[in-house]
Amino acid sequence: MIRVVVGTLIAAAALSGCTKSSEEGGRAGNDTFKIAVPVMATAVKQGELQTVKLTLERGAGFKQRVKLEVKAPAGIQVEPSGATVEPGDKGDVQLKVTVAKDAPIGEHKILVKGTPDKGEPTETEFKITVGAK
What is the pLDDT of residues 109-132, one digit of tens each? Predict the structure, then answer.
């Protein structure tokens, strides 16, 4: 019986997703959007590159362009540092995260801000864990 309960809990955790979303931006009601980023820190070794996927999640009434701005700490470069998600786009943005050979080892936060044409912006962050090469 305990194995069934533990198995169910593990399955529920796996199905709950591997992303977290920002607070809503935009306006009230269904004219809103969120930015979904990975929940778990992405591991990258010094001197290497890793790709991280962000997703702009639109409310049913949200039909605006959103400008994304990405800020990373020293020793970590993110490209593109800015992107625009158009109203008809799927909403997925692939970020290339490059860690310098001398970047400090440890966990670092990367900030993502989304600003719509009209309404309130929102922001979130995701983590990068830098390991030795």
Answer: 999 999 999 989 999 999 999 999
